[in-house]
Every structure is written in C-alpha cells, then in structure tokens.
Write a structure and sequence with these properties.
Blueprint: E1 19-23, E2 26-31, E3 34-37, H1 43-54, H2 57-66, H3 71-83, E4 92-93, E5 96-97, E6 122-123, E7 126-127, H4 130-139, H5 145-151, H6 156-170, H7 175-184
Antiparallel strand pairs: 1-2, 2-3, 4-5, 6-7
Length: 190
C-alpha cells in the first residue's frame, strides 16, 4: 500500500491487466483500455476463469446448481461473485488470477454460496473473518467503541479482544491505520 489509490488508474486501462466489476447488476471488464460487457470476454481470459473453477469442486458444484445449462453464465457468475468490486488491484495480471476480493454484493447474508464463490479479503497473507470485516467497517466511522459493541451485539471485553486480534493480524496500532487498510481492501468508500 505504497501508492495513493486516489491517483491510480484502473487495471486494464494502460496495461495488459484485466479488471472485472459489477455495474448496475451486470459484469463488466476493463481490458485493453476498454470497458466491455462480459459477453465480449477474450478466450484467454475465459480459459483462466474456467481453469480456476475446475480446480475447486465446491465452486464448480455451486455454479452448476445456479446455472445448469450455461457454461458462459457459470463463468460470469464466478467473475461477479469473486471479483465484483472495482478496485486498483488487477484481477488478472500476467496471466495470473488473483485470489479474490471483497465487494459489497447485494446478496451478502442471503446467498447459499457465500464464502464459496465469494471470498473475504486477505491482508499480509491472512484471510479476514466476517466479524473482523464488520469491525473494520465500523471502526472507519465516527462510532464509539460502545456503539460498535452494541451494533455487533457483543460485550465490551469481547470487542476489545476482537480489536486486538485484528490489530495483530493487520500489523497495525491505530484505528486510522485500520481505516487506510479498509479502504485498500475495498471494505469502505470515501
């Protein structure tokens, strides 16, 4: 996190990377300096996504359950769930697909495939847990610890223990550092 995202250019605009994102419920691609609908995906990009799907039996089963008759819809669903956020980290760079990203999917909390198709973010090689994501989002507001504990339905002691674990996991010491990381991980918008 050495550069400011505010001055960055989205992947795929001036480089060979690929960025997927959801806009008005549709999957779009930034590739070769163009914003394209998912139906115009290149065969090489399609192959990268398909190979990744085929490597994970649970993902493959979920996608087959959602779209039993359309391979294209399964691949598009995978791209939406795993990479739906528009951010400054390429989803595909140098032919390598990143692990996934967090985005505010409208189906969070109501999707039977949650945690299988989508992924919670990683930082310093460690995957965050849902409760940690919620804490980071709430810490980026002007809410007090009492208010955050109330919103998370936990005792103050439990909140402080969770905060300590998050700070240790992220390697931070302040709420402000947590807010910067939350922005970088696409957990909050400014």
């Amino acid at each position: 996190m050495t550069q400011s995202n505010a001055n960055s250019i989205f992947p795929g605009m001036i480089d060979s990377a690929t960025e997927f994102f959801v806009s008005n419920g549709e999957v779009k691609i930034i590739q070769n300096a163009k914003i394209l609908p998912f139906c115009e995906i290149s065969s090489a990009t399609m192959q990268i996504l398909e190979e990744t799907i085929n490597q994970d039996a649970r993902v493959k089963i979920e996608l087959l359950d959602m779209h039993p008759t359309s391979k294209m819809k399964r691949i598009e669903q995978f791209a939406m769930c795993r990479f739906g956020g528009l951010d400054f980290e390429a989803d595909i760079k140098d032919g390598q697909l990143q692990d996934g990203e967090y985005w505010e999917c409208p189906n969070h909390g109501n999707c039977k495939s949650e945690g299988i198709l989508c992924k919670l973010p990683k930082y310093n090689g460690q995957r965050l847990e849902k409760q940690e994501v919620i804490l980071l989002q709430l810490m980026a507001t002007n809410k007090t610890n009492d208010s955050i504990a109330h919103d998370m339905d936990m005792a103050m002691g439990s909140l402080h223990k969770l905060k300590k674990n998050v700070y240790d996991k992220l390697g931070i010491q302040t709420k402000q550092e947590g807010t910067m990381i939350s922005f970088f991980l696409n957990l909050i918008r400014v």
